[in-house]
Design a protein that fits this description.
Blueprint lengths: L13 E6 L8 E5 L7 E6 L4 E10 L16 E6 L2 H13 L4 H8 L17 E4 L5 H5 L3 H10 L4 E2 H8 L3 H10 L3 E3 L19 H11 L6 E7 L5 H14 L3 E5 L7 H10 L5 E4 L5 H13 L4 E4 L11 E7 L16 H12 L2 E6 L4 H8 L4 E5 L11 E6 L5 E2 L2 E2 H12 L3 E6 L7 E4 L16 E3 L4 E3 L6 E3 L12 E4 L3 H11 L5 E4 L7 H12 L5 E4 L12 E7 L12 H13 L10 E6 L5 H7 L3 H15 L6 E9 L2 H17 L6 E2 L3 E8 L2 E10 L2 H16 L8 E6 L5
């Protein structure tokens, strides 16, 4: 921690500049009678309100533009200090994403640290076994107590780990065993613990080679792309490398796209390192748990941190490895507020710490592959499935131009599901559209159930008999007659997960059909229950959205069916085919991961499309090279760099008038290298009752584009506009 000092005429006062949670790119000066540390959390008064601030730098009295007596004092000093490596990351993030430093700071820290309160944390305690020959005592134990006693034979366990074994009565048992001398407290640095390795699977030759090669670079910055086909055992490679890093006394950060989608990954980590203190940092944990994990990682009392994108800002005392699992996943990009990409910030952190980073995926993003082609990243491949004898499934295309579908399902699909049902094997029906039907329409006048707040249709949800907007959340009861003409003849058009669920339940009345989408998994407990049913073979037919395309290993799953796939083939978004190929490659990879052969049936109107032709050959590399060649010819990312300036207001005319002003300013101050496109309405023009528009900027050189932005954004800030105008900048946008 860096102590701040300054010299001024008033020896009892130190001057510091703080960052506050404000949309202003500036610092605020306060005084303090004690010396503060860079990154210190403090309480100050700002416009008659007490708010939290963080010390950013010290200044001298000579830098003031007013008398020192007019500078407000710091009210309270909190013990928490943000470490220097996180401060550097915050500084880089603010500069790269052109976002106010204070708001970056308050995005990066846990919510409790943003509140004007003192935080009292219960320090994690660790227990070790003292009496190892107490067989008579062991015979009087219940099953859970015996499990705990057995684990303590060769492990040191935290209170949290003991609670997971015993449940809510854990404290009483600990007190009892402490009083009779069976156990005692463990003192010292937890980082000196030797990990107890259990449930360790033998690695195949390819996995061993990858582990050995990456392990040679543990002492330096070495970005590694781990490209492994679905089911190739990337997780086992992660675990082996993590073991090597922990044995060096260092910490590990593992970033995952969405924690609910990767329960098997978490389970493997807990079983492999069952005596290693780890913490989960996601939106599912409480505020107290999040700040506890955040602080304990900085103290090195947590060895492994697993989290979603926000975890990239976690402080570490001795970080030795970063892993980004499913690095291609779009959920690593935040699309509100500070629009950062956690994968890219993770690479920056690895460079700062001079440590390796692994970007793992069965379908690496084109940006990552492009960095490999530029020799910035190393590439490691896993080309075979980890389970001996398991092979990739056969992918077949069902041409909807020649094979009719009834209620969205062809006879080929129905027969394939019937065969699996008879053989007691699991079938997965993938349809990336939740709800019952994507639209309700009037047969007589053509009225369509569109959202009044967004440029999208309301989706019909049958069980609740409601129409819902999946963009703004607007919901209302399904009308009994057409709101426009009063006709009773209104109909559902298309299929969503609910309608397919209903259809399959009618075709297979004895089958156990389970639907998994956002409507059925709106809580962690709900997801865990559904997941347990699948693994306990209590499901015959599984229906779901892209939630099921990754992170799951169902060994009894032998059939995958893809429905309503073609919308991604001809989209306004140049990334649509990349995203569709990734989803189909991932969901196809769910089939045949065990010893039973897998099959994939994809219904399409465009079977000769390049995407499907590469897909049936499992040729991700070929399709990626095809897309890169196409992007290069059209000068699209990753061969150029994009920035979007977006604006919204209550009126499209107001929005476009403001963007026209911005466009004129950009042209007037052009740097002659950045391409400035004309303002246009956004594809989703109306969203959450706001009319939206955008201006696209591009440049083949990243630095020139950022230098230009740094010059023009302050000028845009000064433009006069109507009060309802909101605007922001999106660097490296993924949502066009």
């Amino acid at each position: 921690m860096e102590q701040l000092s300054n010299s001024n005429n008033n020896a009892n006062k130190y001057l510091v500049n703080l960052v506050l949670d404000l949309p202003l790119d500036r610092e605020f000066t306060y005084s303090c009678e004690t010396q503060l540390t860079l990154g210190q959390r403090v309480l100050v008064e700002f416009i008659n309100k007490q708010v939290v601030g963080f010390v950013w730098r010290s200044i001298t009295e000579l830098e003031l533009d007013c008398s020192i007596d007019k500078i407000k004092p710091v009210i309270n000093i909190y013990p928490e200090v943000i470490p220097s490596d996180v401060l550097q990351l915050i500084k880089f993030t603010a500069k790269y994403y052109h976002y106010p430093i204070g708001q970056v700071f308050f995005t990066a820290v846990p919510s409790l640290l943003r509140k004007p309160i003192f935080i009292h944390l219960d320090t994690e305690k660790y227990i070790k076994l003292i009496r190892r020959d107490h067989e008579v005592f062991k015979k009087r134990m219940g099953l859970k107590q015996q499990e705990l006693y057995s684990k303590l034979q060769d492990s040191i366990l935290s209170y949290t780990q003991i609670k997971e074994i015993l449940g809510i009565t854990y404290k009483k048992l600990i007190e009892k065993w402490l009083s009779i001398g069976v156990i005692g407290y463990c003192e010292g640095n937890i980082s000196t613990l030797i990990p107890k390795i259990s449930n360790k699977l033998p690695l195949n030759t390819e996995q061993c080679d990858v582990v050995n090669q990456i392990s040679q670079n543990l002492a330096k910055f070495s970005p590694a792309v781990l490209y492994g086909i679905t089911g190739s055992g990337k997780t086992e490679v992660y675990l082996e490398l993590i073991e090597n890093v922990i044995l060096l006394g260092k910490q590990v950060l593992v970033l995952v796209p969405e924690i609910n989608l990767t329960p098997q990954l978490l389970d493997r980590f807990k079983r492999r390192f069952n005596n290693m203190p780890m913490h989960i940092l996601t939106s599912n944990v409480s505020e107290k748990e999040r700040v506890t994990g955040y602080i304990e990682a900085s103290l090195h009392t947590k060895q492994i941190i697993i989290g979603t994108r926000m975890a990239v800002f976690t402080p570490f005392k001795n970080l030795g490895l970063i892993i980004v699992d499913e690095e291609h996943d779009s959920s690593f990009k935040q699309n509100e507020g500070l629009r950062y990409n956690a994968r890219d910030l993770a690479v920056y952190r690895a460079n700062y710490f001079n440590i390796p980073i692994i970007l793992g995926s069965a379908t690496p993003s084109l940006e990552t592959l492009y960095n490999y082609k530029l020799k910035r990243y190393a590439l490691y491949k896993l080309t075979g499935r980890a389970v001996a004898g398991a092979v990739l499934p056969e992918i077949k295309l069902l041409d909807l131009n020649t094979i009719p579908a009834n209620n969205g399902l062809t006879d080929n699909v129905v027969k394939a599901i019937q065969s699996r049902f008879i053989n007691k094997e699991l079938s997965l029906i993938y349809i990336n559209r939740r709800g019952y039907a994507p639209v309700i329409s009037c047969y007589e006048c053509g009225w369509v159930s569109s959202c009044k707040n967004c440029s999208s249709n309301m989706v019909y949800h049958n069980k609740e008999a409601r129409l819902k907007c999946h963009h703004c959340g607007l919901s209302y009861k399904l009308p009994s007659v057409c709101p426009k003409c009063g006709s009773k003849y209104i109909q559902a058009i298309g299929q969503g997960t609910q309608k397919i669920e209903e259809t399959l339940a009618q075709i297979f009345p004895e089958a156990r059909v389970l639907r998994i989408d956002q409507d059925t998994t709106n809580s962690k407990l709900a997801w865990d229950n559904l997941y347990a049913k699948v693994h306990n073979n209590e499901v015959d037919i599984l229906i779901g959205t892209q939630m099921l395309t990754k992170g799951h290993d169902f060994h009894n799953l032998t059939l995958v069916v893809g429905l309503n796939l073609d919308s991604g083939l001809y989209s306004y978004d140049f990334r649509a085919t990349e995203f569709l190929f990734t989803q189909l490659m991932q969901v196809s990879g769910r089939a045949g991961r065990g010893l039973k052969k897998g099959e994939v049936l994809l219904q399409t109107h465009y079977p000769r499309h390049e995407l499907y032709q590469y897909l049936i050959k499992h040729d991700f590399a070929g399709f990626a090279n095809f897309l890169l060649k196409e992007r290069k010819g059209l000068t699209l990312p990753p061969y150029t760099f994009y920035v979007l300036i977006r604006a919204s207001s209550n009126s499209l005319d107001t929005t476009m008038a403001f963007l026209t002003q911005v466009h004129e300013l950009l042209i007037k101050n052009s740097d002659n290298s950045t391409i400035i496109y004309h303002p246009v309405a956004s594809v989703m023009q109306r969203l959450k009752n706001k009319e939206r528009g955008q201006i696209l900027l591009s440049n083949n050189k990243r630095k020139e584009l950022h230098d230009y932005l740094a010059m023009v954004l302050p000028l845009i800030e000064k433009l006069k506009h109507k009060s309802d105008i909101l605007w922001h900048v999106d660097i490296d946008p993924t949502d066009m």
